[in-house]
Write a structure and sequence with these properties.
This protein is mainly alpha-helical. Helix content is about 35%, strand content about 10%. Helix 2 (about 100-115) packs parallel to helix 4 (about 140-155). InterPro entries: ERAP1-like_C_dom, Peptidase_M1_aminopeptidases.
């Protein structure tokens, strides 16, 4: 896995203002080596260099999660295959709790923020948060509700609000 993060600027014209060299402490875990209690940085990312994670032998359906327990303020953008593997793991009601609550909060928050920036599709986000039907942690639900309410507020005075409201009513 190469670059697993990117600097997120919602206003593309302001992105240049954020282009500085940062050393970012990264903690990570994998499907095969769940270690959410080890949040000390195991790798430091310097500037815009690619980062190699010593992940061992991962199967094609395994994932890597970076920035455990909200250790560093920032968003993580994964490669598409990794997002799909995370999604599948969350959708498995027997497995999803193996990912710590704080890391699930971060993943849900990152997905919505990346969708808002146009980097990740809202379709993917909503296909993923279907997993909430078996989520029991208030913190994860709280993040999801706030993000969905933000979308509702944006759509409130638009022509598509009725279709949005109907889709919400149909799903309940």
């Amino acid at each position: 896995m190469e670059k697993v993060y990117d600097l997120l600027a919602l206003d593309p014209e302001k992105k240049g203002a954020y282009e500085k060299c940062w050393q970012i402490p990264l903690s990570y875990t994998t499907t095969k080596n769940l270690k959410f209690d080890e949040i000390s940085p195991s790798i430091w990312s310097v500037c815009d260099e690619s980062v190699e994670f010593p992940t061992g032998d991962l199967d094609p359906d395994d994932w890597v999660l970076v920035n455990l327990e909200l250790n560093v303020p920032g968003r993580v953008m994964y490669e598409q295959e990794n997002w799909i593997n995370i999604q599948n793991y969350l959708l498995d009601k027997e497995e999803y709790e193996n990912i710590s609550v704080l890391t699930r909060v971060r993943v849900v928050s990152d997905m919505f923020s990346l969708a808002e920036a146009g980097i990740l599709s809202y379709q993917f986000v909503f296909q993923t948060i279907v997993y909430l039907e078996h989520e029991e942690a208030y913190a994860v639900w709280n993040v999801a509700f706030k993000e969905i309410d933000k979308i509702r507020s944006l759509l409130l005075r638009t022509d598509i609000f009725k279709a949005y409201q109907d889709s919400i009513d149909d799903s309940s």
